[in-house]
Amino acid sequence: MPEYKGHCHCGQTEWTVEIPEEKHILCHCGACKLQSGGEFTLNQIVPKDGFRLTKGDLKVYTYKGDSGNNTDCFFCANCTCSPYHHQHVQGEDKIVIRTGLLEGSDKWGKPAAEIYDKDRASWQPQTADASFATVPGA
Ligand SMILES: [Zn+2]
Ligand SMILES: [Zn+2]
């Protein structure tokens, strides 16, 4: 499985993660907008075992996701850049990695799917072939 490197903006934290499939899932949800300061984030659900923090420490805060279950957001305490989330609704062995922070992931091409399309900004075009009002199966 290919391994990718990432780092936060200030450089105090670095990580590696194993990526089963080189693809982005674009998310338009309200939490992503607040956390990124932009209109969407790029993500993928990956095995938690494949993530390794190789420098620094992460802090965590917890919020309620749409499912009503807790989501833990892990972030650099200095610059707040967030490498991943843990949505407990996905199970304890999976995390949501921010694929846009991984070196070389800009070469993966357009997103494979878009989620929370209901929250897409009116001026934002759909770029993926598949899109879901919230999440697949909801
Ligand atoms: Zn940082
Ligand atoms: Zn989101």
TrEMBL record:
Does the keyword field hold Ribosomal protein? Answer: no
CENP-V/GFA domain mapped to chain residues: 4-124
**Family annotation (InterPro entries):** CENP-V/GFA, Mss4-like_sf
Q: Which molecular function GO terms apply here?
A: carbon-sulfur lyase activity; metal ion binding
Q: Which UniProt keywords apply?
A: Lyase, Metal-binding, Zinc
**So what family is this one in?**
Belongs to the Gfa family.
**Annotated protein name in UniProt:** CENP-V/GFA domain-containing protein
Native organism is Cladophialophora chaetospira
